[in-house]
Amino acid sequence: MLLCDAHLHLAPLIHPKRILDIGTGTGIWAIQMAEEHPDATIWGTDLSPVQPSCVPDNVRFEIDDVNAEDWSWPDNYFDYIHSRFMLSSIGSWSRLVRKAFQHIKPGGYFEMQELDPRFRSDDGSLREDSSLSYWSKTMCEASASYNRTCPEYHQFVKWFEKAGFVDVRRMHLKSPTNPWPKDRVLKEVGKFQLVAHLEGLEGLSIGLLTRQLGWKLEEVQVLMAKIRPELKDRSIHSYQMNSVIIGRKPEPTITSNLSYDATTLGQAPLTPNSISATGSGPFNQEISKEQVVSESRNDDFAMDQGFTPTIDIPQARTNNDLQDPNPHP
């Protein structure tokens, strides 16, 4: 949420009534959405019943497999479907997007916030022969070996468009590996990421590498021992890419003697040149294409088709700003 300026979602929601959280995990996001939208009902699904029992009245947790052929709800049912960090969990990403399209109401939104697990750097400080680079390659191979591919961050848009979503927007948010950036927000993100990796990377790796690639436990532990110093090294400017992809299910055009579309019904469609919306979310101010282009000076918050959603994150995040002037391990 730090990368999204504390927003629970970036889709321009206007009084949603039915919301689905795919892979809800502990249910924290669903609970917070229920508090933010008390008039909506939020369903959270997961394979494991690890969610709390004391939750707001408008929250429902269900055991369900998003990879199943049929979902539990009717078509055209949800105003908004949310999916986040389903890494190594999805058998077919394109099918997931199609199923979301099937169960979203016309005019509703599907938002995916997904992590590309591959570590990378812009300045070459993360070497190809590093342990982090080796881990990235090996983990993606292990995940793909049981039909759970790890997509590259640029692949999602085509799946949204092919499924039928319109006004598809994409944001790329860099998540630093440790507190090496100069930027205050990204430095804070790096602190959390470092703790998460040091405490959780081994558990994630053991399952995939031993079951899928036949590694011994001792071999995984040796790799982790090599990775930890690189994770802590601030002279290595590594990061992982988070992608936020948002698509809207189009409303059918209603015709009579006078032709009119969704705009005349009060549902103004999003356009590449400007966005104006009311309600919650960071889309509630108008922004021109020229303004976005002038403010985006690098690839940190990449635009798709000349536009990126605006959120109140400091814009001065060039590669120079990311660099900590006094790096130290």
Structure notes:
The protein is α/β, with parallel strands linked by helices and 329 residues long. It has 8 helices and 7 strands; from the N terminus they run βαβββαβααβααβαα. A 7-stranded mixed β-sheet has the order 3-2-1-4-5-7-6.
Which key features would you list for this structure?
329 residues; alpha/beta; seven-stranded mixed beta sheet; 8 helices; 7 strands; 30% helix; 19% strand
Summarize the structure.
This protein is an alpha/beta fold. It has eight helices and seven strands.
Strand order of the largest sheet: 3-2-1-4-5-7-6
Order of SSEs, N→C? EHEEEHEHHEHHEHH
Structural class: alpha/beta
**CA radius of gyration:** 21 Å
Question: pLDDT under 50 segments (min length 5)?
Answer: 258-321
Enumerate how many helices there are, as a single number: 8
